[in-house]
Amino acid sequence: TPLRIDKDSKFCWYELNGLPNLPILIPSKAVDAFRQRNNFNIVDYCPLQEDNRWSYHSSSESLEERSIGTKNIKGKEVIVLADSEGNQEFYGYNNGILKLMGAHSSVIGDFYFEPGIIIGKNNLKIGDKYLTTSAVVFSEFSDLKGTIKSSMEFKSLEHVSVPAGEFGDCLKARETGEIDMVNTSTNKRNKGLEVVDHYFAKNIGHTKMEIVEGDLPPGTYKLDSAIINGISVPKPISIEHFSFGALKAIETIFKRIV
């Protein structure tokens, strides 16, 4: 029977082990569907070891982040990421779960999420969605009370092209945060929304972040370069870190009620 091939489809060539002369033609869509069913470890996509660093840019600004070590917060050891604007984020990794535990803002000081916001877990699959409802506790403003309802949904594997290089099989995750804050001394209240798409490359971290909607200024941040475990990127590779939207969104709402 003659071989009929759809001219609009893409195909990949594969060889069976032990049978190098018998290539097999498989549609790329079928290969992609198989890859999307794999399990992924969040720790591989968020390499937060000390002195790892990342440089990003958008149409309006540049930003650098660096893992500067750990600190103890309320008896828990957290990983600290500092950026070039004077902000810090605190991450906890325990029992295969990565959480955003809080942050330091150059505008409002330290604040914490109780419980920590789930970023992802080991053995996650495309389609997994992590929901967290947390109190926002401010160290320097006792009159401020807040809650955040957060979700992280891992939607697909994507190819990402940024100045740092070409990255295949990036985990695309959509972060949605609904924030409610009140100043108890004035009863002034404000709510906010942030929707952000994150693209994580294995052993690299954030390659791109897109602000989709909400109170944050629209924009796309792209990875320019990184140093991961002493190895510089860009380099030929085929396989965030960047500040999560929660910090900037909470700063925005803070300014409305203080």
Structural commentary:
The chain has helices spanning 28-36, 42-45, 245-257, and strands spanning 11-16, 19-27, 39-40, 53-57, 62-73, 76-83, 88-94, 97-105, 109-121, 124-125, 129-138, 144-162, 165-183, 188-201, 205-214, 219-228, 231-233. It is built from three helices and 17 strands. Helix content is 10%, strand content 61%. By secondary structure, it is mainly β. It is globular and about 50 Å long. It has a twelve-stranded antiparallel barrel with strand order 4-5-6-7-8-9-11-12-13-14-15-16.
Provide the low-confidence segments as ranges.
1-9, 236-243
Q: What percent strand?
A: over 45%
Q: Which sequence of SSEs, written as H and E, runs from N to C?
A: EEHEHEEEEEEEEEEEEEEH
* Envelope shape: globular
Report mean pLDDT, rounded to a whole number: 85
Radius of gyration: 21 Å
Structural class category:
mainly beta
Distance between the termini: 76 Å
Number-wise, the strands total 17
**Strand order across the biggest sheet?**
4-5-6-7-8-9-11-12-13-14-15-16
> What kind of sheet is the major sheet?
12 strands, antiparallel, barrel
The tally of helices reads 3
Fraction of residues in H or I helices: 10-25%
